[in-house]
Design goal:
homodimer, 308 residues, alpha/beta, Nucleotidyltransferase, domain 5, 2 domains, six-stranded mixed β-sheet, 9 helices, 15 strands, globular
Chain lengths: 308, 308
């Protein structure tokens, strides 16, 4: 492995901060992380927080450029960056990195987020996922692809020949979290690992595929439980299946059955989507979310380095 | 007005207790209410609570029968009554009232709730709405009707020739309440009366009619707001329109455009549904929820009196 660092890659989200010392080829030499996500930093302390976590590297390599992705570019972050409108080619994102004054003459950039108008006419936004997309799209710069990035706010992204055409966000993860902790369904729900609860997860996916609507299906968690059919320990899996099922149904409704979906995320997140897609006989590929952030940052660095 | 009381009608729900002194023809002679819903009564105190609120009438008319509808028949209520399975004729509900031992030899009954299997194969239940339905269906005992009872858990009910065929519950009101107070959407939402916010309410109804799915539409509340298009004071109305729109879309999907919907509820609840139906060019009639409870109880009394 090449152990000469080429840049510092920073994935700075709402809850966590991850810093990577990365080689020219995108290999991680060293890495460090903390719970100092932007929600846990106050305005004016972002530079200090980064120095605290990555100070050794910053001191050792005074010229090492820094690339930052994620909510660090939001209003609550270090510096608010404008969303770049879609359609946009991934190379055009590289040319619009937002420079930040930080550590003397060190080159430091924030990757801007993206905006679009979804096919139903409403606006949509992403911040952070664009960097993973750059990494993923760079692997296959021609043809049409459909990417799914599961999460609190899951993104479905349409790409053609390296151009991000449009995308749509689904509040799946957030609604799952809210319904587990508030309201009628939360009362009997047990917080049990979902690993062995696949039967009820898939029943949820199956029902979501019928047209009777999410608002009705949610009440079914209660009525199946009242009837004694759905035991409390399976309710969480069933709810997860219902919500992911509804997301897939809406996102895939006009997509031919043989079009593959590329999932990008952490294993814990993508596993349920894999099971649901497989149940619906949808082809899919899975890419590591962390790997894609690093590949994306490496692409952005290579592009910036070419310009210098 | 006939001022000779025929029975005491009790509408005992989760949050409230309403007692009516009612004539043979279902006219209210006097009425009283308290916040002593079943959630605010402990086991063993239901009799005392009723005596406290309606003691004067109970003492004055020791033989007056009492009919109780609502959550009072649930596990958390005075006595748990089994759900009667649908399809069921409204006259068959009258013959299956559950007697309760209360005040010496006084006749006292709880109206049982109903259960069914919805067309998507899941079970469903109601408790309280069946009494309003008895009142409404009695007005038109032949032909096919579609009833909507808006609320925390809205019910859509299919009826043919006096027989309640099946019904489906939508968690519309509950989800509206939860999303106003928890999670991303609650952060900027302002609690402003919705009376003058019809424009955004109807935009929500309109969008819900498109096929991109509720999980995506919910995120639109945030992205429209980020973009500056949707001001904070209109977010609540827009969310309400989205949710009611999704309920209507699912409930009406196989119902011909010229089939009228009969709404049963309080004016504050039915008004938004009226606006949404009217926007979707759906015909509807509105019946007062309180009137239907009393009509239903009067029907049950007439039927019980015939048997004695």
């Amino acid at each position: 492995m090449n152990t000469i660092p080429a840049f510092l890659g920073v994935d700075w989200g709402t809850s966590n901060l991850r810093v990577y010392l990365v080689s020219q080829r995108g290999q991680v030499i060293e890495q460090t992380q903390s719970a100092k996500g932007i929600l846990h930093c106050s305005q004016g302390t972002f530079g200090d927080t980064l120095t605290q976590l990555a100070g050794t590297w910053l001191t050792r390599w005074p010229q090492l450029p820094v690339y930052m992705a994620g909510m660090i570019g939001s209003k609550q972050g270090w510096r608010e960056t404008s969303y770049l409108p879609c359609p946009i080619h991934i190379d055009d994102i590289a040319s619009q990195l937002v420079p930040l004054s930080f550590d003397g003459t060190r080159k430091c950039w924030i990757v801007p987020g993206l905006s679009c108008t979804t096919p139903d006419g409403t606006p949509d936004v992403m911040r952070g996922e664009e960097t993973q997309l750059i990494g993923a799209i760079h692997r296959q710069r021609t043809g049409s692809q459909l990417y799914c990035l599961p999460g609190t706010h899951a993104k479905w992204v349409h790409v053609k020949d390296g151009v991000i055409q449009h995308f749509a966000t689904y509040m799946t993860g957030e609604l799952f979290d809210i319904l587990q902790h508030h309201g009628l369904l939360s009362v009997w729900m047990q917080d049990i690992p979902q690993e062995d609860q696949q039967e009820w997860f898939l029943k949820g996916v199956e029902l979501a595929n019928k047209q009777t609507g999410l608002l009705h299906h949610l009440f079914g968690v209660r009525s199946l439980s009242l009837e004694g059919t759905l035991p409390p320990k399976h309710q969480r899996s069933y709810l997860s299946g219902l919500l992911i099922g509804h997301e897939l149904r809406a996102a895939l409704q006009h997509i031919p059955q043989d079009t593959p979906v590329t999932l990008i995320g952490a294993t814990s997140l993508t596993k349920q989507y894999e099971r649901a897609c497989s149940h619906l006989q949808r082809q899919l590929h899975v890419l590591s979310g962390e790997r894609m952030v690093l590949d994306g940052l490496a692409q952005l660095h290579a592009s910036a380095a070419r310009k210098v």
